[in-house]
Amino acid sequence: MSARPPVVLLLSGPNLQLLGDRDPKVYGTERLEDHVRRASERAAAHGLALEHLQADAEAALVAAVHGARGRAAALVVNAGALTHYGWALHDALATFAGPVVELHLSNPAAREPWRQTSVVAPVADGTVAGFGGLGYLLALDAVAALLGRA
Ligand code: DQA
Fold it and tell me: 114 FRET partner, CA 20 to 30 A, in 14, 74, 81, 90?
């Protein structure tokens, strides 16, 4: 009997369910479900199982991080605008023992000043930003490497 693959939890913050319609020049024309499907395939190629949660409310994301403690092997977090002020999410991520990869479709460092601060970055192992949908694949590759699987 083979062991269950380690779980990677992908968290998507507010407004990311509107991808495809929302500001396609910045975020592209693909929908969140397209990114999640391809991220799941990349996870499976690394012997990992992807779970996904999208929530507009910070409390739901915090609860998901709590639920991932001791259960998930790693987190990939695109916190949307919560990236820039979500201190409760920051504190929750700080309690997670495994790898945390911060992810953005756009490159917030090249955008408005208020996007240039991330409260996720200080509790992440690293950040993938500015590569559009490719970022989901790069984030899964980074997680696999951090878990010693790539
Ligand atoms: C984002 C960047 C954030 O500044 C923004 O609020 C988002 C999306 C990105 O993926 O580029 O909602 O996280």
Answer: 74
* pLDDT for residue 80 is more than 80: yes
| Paired strand residues for 103 | 128
Nearest CA to ligand 1 atom 8: 80
128, β-bridge pairs: 103
**Domains along the chain?**
7-146 (3.40.50.9100)
Residue type, 110: A
Which pLDDT value is given to residue 1? Answer: 56
20, amino acid identity: G
In this predicted model, what pLDDT tens digit does every residue of 111-120 receive, in sequence order? 999 999 999 9
From the CB of residue 112, how many other CB atoms can be counted at a distance below 10 Å? 8
Residue located via tokens 């639920």 = 67
**Torsions phi, psi of 52, nearest 5?**
-135, 140
Q: What's the 121 CA to ligand 1 centre distance in angstroms?
A: 13
H helix runs in 1-133, sequence order: 24-27, 32-45, 58-68, 87-94
Please state the rounded mean pLDDT for residues 7-15: 98
